[in-house]
Design goal:
single chain, three-stranded antiparallel β-sheet, OB fold (Dihydrolipoamide Acetyltransferase, E2P), 11 strands
Length: 136
């Protein structure tokens, strides 16, 4: 689906902290949604997650642009099993191709975490408030 000029693919799930989630075989691949990645323009630094257990709601990634810095929280609990090391040297790839630039893969501990995620159409009001409110 489209949100303004941005894509929110219908085959992904989302949390209300700017992350997309693709679930396959109990593995959640996560990254940053296009509206946020494009509005923030160019990431210049990324602190990737460590290979360890993470709880839902804990910070999984820290990012910086020239004018913004922030953290995103994990949409699921589980074991971080892989991180996209290529992003460390060029985090701006996320801005160019947010849905091809995953950050981490997490083996999901509790499948109920998926029940609390959102479909693309459920994100519109949150995006409107976040972008208009300058909460990015």
């Amino acid at each position: 689906m489209k949100y303004k000029e941005y894509d929110l693919p219908d085959d992904l799930l989302y949390n209300k902290d700017s992350s997309w989630i693709k679930v396959k075989d109990n593995i959640a691949t996560i990254g940053i949604i296009e509206p946020i990645a494009k509005i923030l323009k160019e990431f210049v630094f990324i602190k990737l997650p460590e290979i360890k257990k993470i709880n839902k709601g804990e910070i999984y990634v820290s990012l910086e642009t020239l004018k913004w810095s922030g953290h995103l929280t994990s949409p699921v609990s589980g074991q971080v099993i892989e991180v996209n090391e290529g992003l460390f040297n060029d985090p701006s790839i996320i801005n160019k191709e947010p849905y091809n630039s995953w950050i981490a893969k997490i083996e999901i501990e509790d499948s109920k975490d998926i029940d609390n995620l959102f479909r693309s159409e459920d994100l519109i009001d949150w995006l409107d408030k976040t972008i208009k409110g300058g909460k990015i």
